[in-house]
Amino acid sequence: MQFVSTRGQAPALGFSDAVLAGLAADGGLYVPAAWPQMSEKEIAAFAGRPYADVAYDIIGRFVGDEIPAAKLREIVDGAYASFRHPSVTPLVELEPNHFVLELFHGPTLAFKDVAMQFLSRTMDHILSERGLRATIVGATSGDTGSAAIEAFRGRDTTDIFILHPRGRTSEVQRRQMTTVLDANVHNIALEGTFDDCQDAVKAMFNNHAFRDSMRLSGVNSINWGRIVAQIVYYFVAAVALGAPHRPVSFTVPTGNFGDIFAGYCAKRMGLPISRLVIATNANDILRRTIDTGRYEMQGVSPTISPSMDIQISSNFERLLFESAGRDADAVNRMMAALKQSRGFDLPEGAIAAIRAEFAAGTSGEDETSRTIAQTWANSAYLLDPHTAVGVSVARRLERSTEPMITLATAHPAKFPAAVRAATGIEPPLPAWLADLYGREERLDVLANDQSAVEQFIGARSRAA
Ligand SMILES: Cc1ncc(COP(=O)(O)O)c(C=O)c1O
Ligand SMILES: N[C@@H](CCOP(=O)(O)O)C(=O)O
């Protein structure tokens, strides 16, 4: 299987090179040259299979023969053995026909672990095979960073540099990152927003001299290796509720559009998904785009769901590429307009194609808080504020006979202040994180200055 860039000017790559590249050399994102197709029979055969078996099958379709079958099996088994629930991603029925898909049973309590546990093992394998060391750079609003640091800590093949927006993550998220003291882990608290962190990471990739000398690699969902692992749970959840014979819908708390794009990929592969619902917090650029056909940046306001406080939604570019008929020139035009004037109009055909697949809704701060409170009162179930955004939007939709699955993207204990404010309950951290508040922290505060960030990384990376 080959992967092509959404901007059409970078060479097509195989799975391993696409994973190591992260962002394509032309600034685009890699997508499969063609979508693997799954028959109804193949999908039905997932029923009752362990999570790791389904992961091995689905991911294997994108890997091809680039990783030996036994090695891929070992990677997948190791990744999902790190989860604390036997089903890995269990479904819980919140109310009739509305389920939450709990994606937070991994080591750092957020859905990012599902992909990161796979990606770190995969990168380690590819780099070891090639006798190389890489510099991993990543931007985080809190969850990607903690999952990545946990997954890559202590690995000899990589140094990892994670940029988070100073003061804009929850304390638990920050401590999950900054209390990991392994020599290959570096936390940068940037004076800026998540979008500034993401811009800095993309600028490093677009600085080709720096990229090559540091052997840069990325762990954000711009990396195809993240998306591929997230496709799996859409299949697992849908089949558990009757697919392929019964279609299902998903509501996804959305920021960088990686998670919901994985659902779109599952649909393109043949999974019968009726509705893919984008749920945003007050930073609602994606909902506005679906409503108006114009992607228009405004300022980012801090919310109780900080991991979704995003304006530049990277993976939306992958959807633009697909919905514009894989026209890389059109994508280049839209991305240039975004850079120049902070907005662009989607071509009519593209917005129509997107509206045919996606719905969107926003949950404001009060509504999200009320949703946490009501769900606790009515169902004795504690939602984290990101999942609450999804549940709130899903509840507002017209009822359908098909199951609705809202993705539960984080454990409530990661956001204790918001949960306590809504319910009076403070969810305890699990045993392995119980002493988190007493652990020593290590981080460096840097100005939002590209050359300062590059200098910092250049001086510490062992890949150079
Ligand atoms: C807890 C949580 N929910 C939802 C999201 C949004 O996911 P995505 O960025 O893939 O849209 C994030 C961040 O990515 C997150 O950390
Ligand atoms: N919400 C994310 C933001 C980065 O998203 P990613 O999925 O592209 O890594 C976070 O928690 O860091």
CATH class category name of the largest domain = Alpha Beta
Share of helix, binned: 40-55%
Backbone shape: globular
Describe the strand arrangement of the main beta sheet, using strand numbers.
Answer: 3-4-14-9-10-13
Which ions, cofactors or small ligands are bound in this entry? pyridoxal-5'-phosphate, ligand LJ64HWYM
Q: State the domain count.
A: 2
Question: What is the arithmetic mean of pLDDT?
Answer: 97
| N/C terminus separation | 30 Å
Low-confidence stretches: none
The count of DSSP E runs of length 2 or more, i.e. the number of strands, is 15
Strand content: 15-25%
User: What do we call the CATH topology of the largest domain?
Assistant: Rossmann fold
Please tell me about this protein's structure.
56% of the residues are buried. The longest helix is centred in the N-terminal third of the chain and has 19 residues, at 112-130. Helix 3 (51-63) crosses helix 10, helix 4 packs antiparallel against helix 5 (112-130) and helix 5 (112-130) packs parallel to helix 6 (143-152). Helices cover 45% and strands 16% of the residues. It has a six-stranded mixed β-sheet with strand order 3-4-14-9-10-13, with helices on both faces. The protein has a five-stranded parallel β-sheet with strand order 8-5-6-7-15, sandwiched between helices. A two-stranded antiparallel ribbon has the order 1-2. The protein folds into two domains: 3-112 and 223-418, Rossmann fold; 133-214 and 437-459, Rossmann fold (3-Layer(aba) Sandwich). Strand 5 (134-139), helix 6 (143-152) and strand 6 (158-165) form a beta-alpha-beta unit. The two termini are 30 Å apart. The protein is built from 19 helices and 15 strands. With 464 residues, it is of the alpha/beta class. Ligand LJ64HWYM is lined by residues 140-145, 220-221, 255-256, 258, 307, 314. GO terms for molecular function: pyridoxal phosphate binding; threonine synthase activity. Residues 87-329 form the Tryptophan synthase beta chain-like PALP domain. The modification N6-(pyridoxal phosphate)lysine is found at residue 112. This is Threonine synthase.
